[in-house]
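Lab meeting minutes (informal)
Scribe: AK
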Amino acid sequence: MCGTASFEVTGGFDCFYLCHCKHCQKDTGSAHAANLFSQSAKLVWRTGADAVTSYTLPGTRHNKSFCKLCGSALPSTQTPGLLVVPAGCLDSEISMAPTAHIFSSSKAVWDEALGEVPAFEGLPA
């Protein structure tokens, strides 16, 4: 968000999950996280690698990488052999549709009827 950290990903993604687990709800402040996963793509930090920090929730595999200046989500390589890229942090179009909803048993109650909620192109007046 602040532009300090920039990166490039070369290679393709294996899957695109919308995760509804309680940990993802807490760290996004939303109904789910939207992350792309790859076991073969490579991450290269163009700028701001020193501004990237990571947090792993003790006793879990749940981790998040983010900019220590503005807090925006950034790619994570905390799990060996796995690149996890938050979909919303990409500047380019994502060519694949989400593969699956995961941890749907933890889905937020208010997430059930989102298709019925009015949509506005900007902030409503």
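Next up, CB showed the second protein from the same session:
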Amino acid sequence: MVSASSLSALAEDQLALARATDSGRSARTVYGGPSTSLRQTLIALVAGHELAEHASPGDATLQVLRGRVRLTAQDRCWPGEAGDLLVIPDARHALRADEDAVVLLTVARG
């Protein structure tokens, strides 16, 4: 079965939820589950907030849908802005929002 979603509308919803939390973040899986090898999650971060350093669950990319972010890993930094696609390194990494941002995290699980 094919389904369609407006990523723009979902991104706005997640950003509104992130703005209402002390953590300054919100996330929603838009595709995938325990029985699939692909998972896509919208992550919203309010400016100045971050996802602390964590391990990568598999091959993964971040598509920046809105705002500006910085992906950091092992003393390296990759900036991203709306329209950019960042490949997440196979190393512990963190993500920080330089301005209110929404990204689409895509993970291929083995």
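CB comment: Helices lie at 7-19.
No objections, moving on.
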